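Lecture notes, structural biology module. Today: joint structure prediction for complexes of two components.
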Amino acid sequence: MHSLSNRSKVVVKKEMTLTEKMYLPAILGGMMITIKHFFKRKPTIQYPEQKREFSKVYRGRHILKRDEQGRENCTACGLCAVACPAEAISIVAAERKKGEEHLYREEKYAKTYEINMLRCIFCGLCEEACPKDAVYLTEELAPANFDRSNFIFGKDKLVQPVGTSAHPKTYKPYKK
Amino acid sequence: MEIFLIDKIVLIVAVFGITLLFALYSTYAERKVAAFIQDRLGPNRAGIFGILQPLADGVKFFLKEEFIPAHADKALFILGPSVSMTTALMTSAVIPWGNSLELFDRVISLQITDLNIGILYVFAVVSIGVYGIMIGGWASNNKFSLLGALRASSQMISYEIAMGLSIIALVMTTGTLSLGEIVQQQNGSIFGISGASWNIIYQPLGFLIFMICAFAECNRTPFDLPESENELVGGYHTEYSSMKLGFFLFAEYTNMFISSAIMSSLYFGGYNFPFMDQLGLSHNLVTILGTTFLFAKIVMFIFLFMWVRWTLPRFRYDQLMRMGWKMLIPLALINIIITGLLIVVLK
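The predicted structure, tokenised, for the full assembly:
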């Protein structure tokens, strides 16, 4: 067999030498290894007080963005739903009425926008597919729940709350 | 006479308290050392650096349900941990914890009692200690407990022989069985350094054998077959809960402390430290410093116990027996012969 890593050793059954039979040198060697670890810097993160930073490209739960005037960006084109490999997104579109211009940026908007968080694989393809800069994956974790039905996130949970800015914690551009 | 009694009672209480304190904080140290060796931090939530962890553990032990299995022999079941704990605490009586203090116009020895057969007393008490484990394992009426107890007794009997033989060589060089005198003798000077003629210089092989046997006597890894949690559940203490289990575990740490003290006293000069008589300090101060040094040595030995525990895996049972009977006992005998020859040649 050709070795890929060049680290493999051929095991040979041979008589032990006297030093090997005495065990002590090997034991001392082992103790040197453990004492080295004893003085090593510990990688522990003291969790509740200290939190580990997420990776820059971490993909958590989704957010439906609003623009600077607080209007929803989503135009219910359905490209995210098409792109979604897990078929987690379902959208019902509706036409913007007169007087709703301050609510929705485009003439068509999503009446319901649901993501099934149990189906979602957080691949971020919806984010890439979106032509209207509407759906993004944030750094937040999708929270646990006791009920399956609560994992279907509607617009109440997904749309960016009014008055919030493009904060890095809740909103991060995927590619810049 | 009354004053003598008061001295002794104060000393006994102090030694008792210190022993228990050391045992208590050995559990904490064990967890910390284990954690650090495994690149973790260990308990650090109870108090600063987790310093109150042993207290929390103790409280938990007391609050746990006291459970005695239906098929267990009740009297023996309770006797087991009691014997373990009592014998573990008894040995400290003959260890010289320091030289002597000159207080109130009297000379107070810091050894509770200097038996002229101190070493034999230690051996006698330690071998009773195995009864605690045996009785506990037998009374549990459980296969795992019985196997653990069986292993404990055979292991202890095997390693006691090598331990005794290594001590015989030491007794040949010192010419006394009294621990007080053995420590006193190590006060002599070597290369002009007073208080440094420790027995380890004359008995290196004997010390090695004694130390290995001490590991076995304390049931510490690599000799922790009586417990071997991954094959015997918990070994002899499988059926134990609450403070009875606590006593068993506590006895192990007490034994560790006592054997560290004995190793320090027999081979590492006890309360003697280099340059002790050349510093020109008052007798009391030297004694206090000596006691501090003794405890420093003990702490180092306890650390060694833990260091080894978290380095080595457990022996297989046949390896354990082979090591005891076919390696350590012949080595100890060779050590006796060499020592005898050297004594004849050099004196």
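Point to remember: The first strand of chain A starts at residue 62 and ends at 64.
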